[in-house]
Amino acid sequence: MLKKSTTPHMLSNQTTQSVMFDVVLALFPTLIVSVLFFGLKAVLVLVTSVTACLTFEYICNRFWLMKERNSTRDFSAVITALLLACSLPSNLPLIFVVFGAFVAIVIAKMSFGGLGKNIFNPALSGRVFLFLSFPVYMTSWPKPSFNNFFQQDVSTGATTLELIKYSDASTSATRLDNNDYLNEIPDYFDMITGYIAGSLGEVSAIALLLGLAYLLYRNVITWHIPFFYILTVFLTVYVVSLFSEEPLKYSAVTHVLSGGLLLGAIFMATDYVTSPMSEKGKIIFAIGCGLLTVLIRLTTVYSEGVSFAILIMNAFVPFIDRISVPRIYGTGGKK
Amino acid sequence: MLFNIVGINLKKNKLSRHEAIRDIGLPKTVSIPLKKHIGHPAVAVVNEGDKVKIGMLLAKANNTISANVHASVAGRVSKIDEDYIHINTSKDEAEDYIDFSDELITEIPQDKEEILALIRDAGIVGMGGAGFPTDIKLSVPTGKEIKCLILNGIECEPYFTGDERLMLEKAEEIVIGARIINRLLGIQNAIIAVDEKKKKAFEILTSITKRYIGVNVKLLTNKYPQGAEKMLVEAVSGEEVPSGKLPMDMGYVVQNVGTVYAIYQAVMKKKPLYERVVTVSGDAVAKPKNYMVRIGTPVSFIAEKAKVDIKEVEELLIGGPMMGTDIDDLSTPVSKLDGGVLFLKKAKPETEESVCIRCNKCAQHCPIALQPFAIANSYKAGDKPNLYKLRALDCINCGICSYVCPAKIPLLDYIKQAKNEIR
Ligand code: SF4
Ligand code: SF4
């Protein structure tokens, strides 16, 4: 039977579903590390998050947006769930994970109309909600414990960035010497492998970079946002360090490797829906994220600024999109 | 480039690239199109029942922008309708004035008017698919200065190999053809643009052009749609064709290599355009090949000669997979514009349009750097002023946006409708 179709008569095999699934695959190294280091607790947080997000997505899509098409099948809710889990401490009570999932899916995503319509990154919205509502739980970080699946006798500790923050005389009351904190900063090897205190998915630089490589290889994202985001943080901290006597506190490499920067720059800031479209726009957005991240880390009471920085920049995306429209072929001007 | 990743790398499937051009033979009937070219339909000068010979004028160009049509077989005119002149083939007999020898003729006529008249008489139109009458394209309006002739040897659609074969087998004729056009345009600067996958053709043409003045070869990248005029001019000259202008306005004339070969034959051999190279390919064709096919040959004849089991075919394309047209009528004849007939076992999958996920792939790869998603949205919203602002009319119909869109939004369909609305 001869069929008729419109041009082009062939289509690439990349679909929304395949693109989203690629992101899930890119997260795999990070998920494996999180289970190795944080054991059963990580598994529970991940499973709770995925179950909750998919349930909320299904219910909202079916009974609120009244859509026929089952939107859970496009994997976007799975990505949100995994990213949310990745940005939480593994010892967080599971009911809070469900709260986070509710904010992420119902408020940040579906109330705007679902995939493609939301302004703020859903996973980050969920995380920031939890952070502001339950600050104590959200700043108690279990230390990784390898080969200890049931995570017996695990102590909690401060993240690298918290150590840096505590070393500020103004916030430190308990210890006499600020350098005690700075001396506790893990070495680069531990930061790269991820054997440090922190949220599920932010600890291991190497796992996150593997994910980045996969996303680039599969043409899911372009290099602009991760590159310019990380570069901006590195350069800004480096410039600050030139005017500082405390090399440990303002080490550019430490700032790049700790906290949620890599997770944010690779997986959160690159979210299609909530980042600018053109390459030029992406670069503006990434530099903005980088500057805000450093600003928050160095000048506010918060030790980490990635979530806030990206969410703030999310709000500017429509504006950035408007000022960064690419020059059309044959309309003159610079290339 | 930092800001623009123009075009895409397509799987090229050039299955027939090593197959020499061979004659496909004589179909029992031909239906010769009267209005496939751009401009006015040609007007029949024969009557039903008339006996015709190969190369005989069947229909005359009926205005400045129109093209002559010649008999591609000998036989009797069975029917003349609005679109076609149908001929029942008898024997293979040609008009005497055509020189069928293989001898290469290098002596180019001096008189420009004579050259132009020969091209016009031969009914040559753009054979790369544009179908614009070539004599018009080569008549430079007074006041316009031509800098360069660009020969398009890119053939960036998947499967197509006819132009590549011509460049391998008729390289010298093409170079002489370029010199004929050079003379006509009063320049000494023709560039044959070949893409990097056609190394052999590039080498052959380079060695031949050493012996001739005013013709050079240039190697370009092999991305789709490198063969589109606007892309080609930019790749060769570094200049963009301004929005709403033609390459001619900037001093460039672009001709497909197949058309240039036809010009050589028209001017040197007095042979009108009544046959062309057609790539017959696709996964339903056991042995994809390049055939010399008489204009008006029905697709059914081609299917038979290429041993295609038509029951296996789901999509039958005249033209390439990106920009060609699909047909469901096997009696459709090959026209002067058609470089390929593709028999594919799998049609384009039926996909459901889902929501735009703002991935930017459509805009990122659009060769014109348009924002296809924005044009589609403005069209759906009925926002005409915005369609002008987004320059929907500059779209070259390359199909990349629809091809890459992961949400499977038929962007080009919307853009075409949008263009119709504001044109
Ligand atoms: S079809 Fe038009 S809008 Fe789409 S990519 Fe090609 S030129 Fe751009
Ligand atoms: S390619 Fe499709 S999904 Fe991506 S931005 Fe364009 S229209 Fe939207």
Task: Please give a structural write-up.
The complex is a heterodimer of chains A (335) and B (423). Chain A has 13 helices and 2 strands; from the N terminus they run H-H-H-H-E-E-H-H-H-H-H-H-H-H-H. Chain A has 335 residues and is an all-alpha fold. Chain A is globular and about 75 Å long. With 423 residues, chain B is of the alpha/beta class. Bound molecules: iron/sulfur cluster (2 copies). One iron/sulfur cluster binds at residues 366-368, 370, 372, 395-401, 411-412, 415 of chain B.
Radius of gyration of chain A, in angstroms, nearest whole number: 21 Å
Mean pLDDT of chain A: 89
Largest sheet composition of chain A: 2 strands, antiparallel
SSE string of chain B, helices as H and strands as E: EEEEEEEEHHEHHEHEHEHEEHEEEHHHHH
Low-pLDDT sequence parts of chain A: none
Structural class of chain B: alpha/beta
Distance between the termini of chain A: 48 Å
Residues in helices of chain B, as a percent range? 25-40%
SSE topology sketch:
The complex is a heterodimer of chains A (335) and B (423).
Chain A: H1 16-64, H2 76-86, H3 94-109, H4 122-133, E1 141-142, E2 156-157, H5 160-166, H6 178-183, H7 188-193, H8 205-217, H9 224-242, H10 252-257, H11 261-268, H12 279-299, H13 306-323
Helix pairs in contact in A: 1-2, 1-3, 1-8, 2-3, 2-4, 3-4, 4-13, 8-11, 9-11, 9-12, 12-13
Chain B: E1 22-23, E2 29-33, E3 43-44, E4 51-52, E5 57-60, E6 69-70, E7 75-80, E8 84-89, H1 112-121, H2 134-138, E9 148-153, H3 162-169, H4 171-185, E10 190-195, H5 199-209, E11 215-220, H6 229-237, E12 252-256, H7 257-269, E13 275-281, E14 289-294, H8 299-305, E15 315-318, E16 325-326, E17 340-344, H9 361-365, H10 372-380, H11 384-389, H12 400-404, H13 411-422
Helix pairs in contact in B: 1-4, 3-5, 4-7, 10-13
Bound molecules: iron/sulfur cluster (2 copies).
